[in-house]
Design brief:
single chain, alpha+beta, three-stranded antiparallel beta sheet, two-stranded antiparallel ribbon
């Protein structure tokens, strides 16, 4: 199963804010499409401002998607039904 999802990536500015523990919005991060070949788990990620996103656990790494937990799970279910 492969699944392409929009994932947040830090910009130089958001990485600096993160490192200094300063507030920033996830929407200030860059969004890139990532193709996953294996997803180990999906959980809820809640930002400091209360917004919720999907936290994807894959091969020891974690990725925050622009999508909700429910939407990512729905896409996984659809992808599995195609196989």
């Amino acid at each position: 199963m492969t699944l392409e999802l929009p994932i947040y990536f830090h910009t130089d500015e958001t990485q600096q804010a993160h490192d200094l523990e300063l507030p920033y919005s996830m929407e200030d991060c860059e969004t890139r499409m990532v193709t996953f070949y294996e997803i180990n788990a999906v959980s809820v990620y809640q930002s400091k401002n209360g917004s919720e996103y999907a936290l994807i656990h894959a091969n020891g790494d974690k990725f925050i998607s622009t999508l909700s937990y429910a939407e990512v799970n729905a896409r996984i279910a659809r992808a599995k039904s195609v196989i």
